[in-house]
UniProtKB/TrEMBL annotation:
It comes from the Eukaryota. It is found in: Secreted. Pfam families: ILEI. It comes from Menura novaehollandiae. InterPro entries: FAM3, ILEI/PANDER_dom, ILEI_FAM3C. This is FAM3C protein. Keywords: Disulfide bond, Lectin, Secreted, Signal. The gene is Fam3c. Belongs to the FAM3 family. GO terms for cellular component: extracellular region.
């Protein structure tokens, strides 16, 4: 009788152990399945997230090109912004922009920043701008953006020097127009990188100023 009871106890113990092990295994499988499912969802989310390109432009530039993105100022409140190869060259945050025409010079071979300047074309003098434009070396990429007013003090000589960099809109740039331009010293053709919005009280987004103008693109690297 005692042996029979022992057998029954052992059988119950083994059965209980088996059931518990099965339940534990099922839970482990469920947890692993949940982990794998979440990993798959995370991977899918990462794969569907759009890639980010330099300066936040919409598509990658080909080899031997420099990515750039720029915007004019917003009225007389927010300054312009110029970015090349994911480096912000000029912006209100960097505190190196000002009323008038903002200019960034970039090495056409390396994409490295050479200089930044802004010239007040409302209350300033055009002579420093002319002198600066004449000093630019061949092969230099020139990026320009207006802020507030970039045209009042421009004269024929200054406009001609900017036109020689590849601009076509500079001859028509007027009071409080918004304008962004990317050209180069020694360029043989007109630049394809230029945007211009006229100051027009009937279409202005801001009182007294047109909307911000933005532009992005890929600048060919200067070859020897």
């Amino acid at each position: 009788t005692g042996a029979a009871k022992l057998v029954v106890v052992i059988a119950i113990f083994l059965l209980t152990f088996y059931v518990i092990s099965q339940v534990f295994e099922i839970k482990m499988d469920a947890n692993l399945g949940h982990i794998f499912a979440r990993s798959a969802l995370d991977a899918a989310a990462r794969s569907t997230k759009p890639p980010r390109y330099k300066c936040g432009i919409s598509k990658a530039c080909p080899e031997k090109h420099f990515a750039f993105k720029m915007s004019s100022g917003a009225a007389n409140v927010v300054g312009p912004k110029i970015c090349v190869e994911d480096n912000v060259l000029m912006s209100g945050v960097k505190n190196n922009v000002g009323r008038g025409i903002n200019v960034a010079l970039v090495n056409g071979k390396t994409g490295e920043l050479l200089d930044t300047k802004f010239f007040d074309m409302w209350a300033g003098d055009v002579a420093p701008l002319i002198e600066f434009l004449k000093s630019i070396q061949d092969g230099t990429i020139v990026l320009m953006a207006t802020y507030d007013d970039g045209a009042t003090k421009l004269n024929e000589e200054a406009r001609k020097l900017i036109a020689e960099l590849g601009s076509t809109s500079i001859t028509n740039l007027g009071f409080r127009d918004n304008w962004v331009f990317c050209g180069g010293k020694g360029i043989k053709t007109k630049s394809p990188f230029e945007q211009h919005i006229k100051n027009n009280k009937d279409t202005n987004k801001y009182e007294g100023w047109p909307e911000v103008v933005e532009m992005e693109g890929c600048i060919p690297q200067k070859q020897d």
